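May I ask for a protein sequence together with how it folds?
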Amino acid sequence: MSLVRASGALAIANLTDQALRVRAVEAASTYDTEMLVEVTRAYMTTASRKGARTSLKTLEAYALAVRDFVPWAQNNGVQLLRPGRRDGGRYVAQLQTRPTLGRGKTGTLSASTVAQYVAGVRALYRALRWAGATEAQPFEDAHVPPDPTPGIVKNPPYMTEIDAVLAQCEPRLAALLLLCAHAGLRISEALGLTLADVDGARLTVRGKGGKIRRVPLGKRVRAVLAALPALSADGRLFEWKYAQATYQMQKAFRAAGYGHVWRGFHAARKHSGTRLYSATRDFTRVGLFLGHSSVDTTRRYVAVQDDDVASEVEFF
């Protein structure tokens, strides 16, 4: 049976059950990577827990995983619709021993990268079950060992670097850094801000999964935002894409003499979490400020001093 190729995730989701099944079976049987990416995207945006609110970042990460797994399966004799019971473990093992291709990095893929790939392929198989193409779950028992090194150790917050780098930033770049380092925004949240989101000492932030939170702004952030004119009719404050913002911030770090410690924007967000925890000693309040749904996540954003309880235990 031959079908006209549907274009896009919504078009695939709108197929009849029979047509969807035929499309998914055909794609899996022929190792059609891009169609399998679209089937996965259709499932994620119409049938997953978050549905249409699934973030673009998640969709892109899962697409990358499918594009990695499908050629591997084809080259290693794995039938996508009838995988062997050990095939999931085989794929995880080769990920764990694969050399990293990250610029300036050595060794094998990080545990977090392996986990991200496996999450994407698990989503692919959920999508294939949703489409009625297979009941296989080759990754159900595949174990992905966690990284033994905490993220706050591998990627600690910037601390003294922030003020030195701010001195090398033009006003708009300084605003971006302060929004991450003082207001605790994710870089995607900061880049998406408009003038209408700023209301005096408060900021309306549209976060992951469509969640909206109100963030208090310190005087330094208020001052730098007040001096920024909008860049477009819709009031956008930044025109950079993520890669462009990264390039600009890396230049500022190098100019400040801290090019060797650049660890991305997330380390700036951890700066705000660490400073707020030092002031409040309350993970719940820090989590609300950062927009976390779990305090366990917040703990990974706070660098606690090794001797944090030294005075409390002094007279035990």
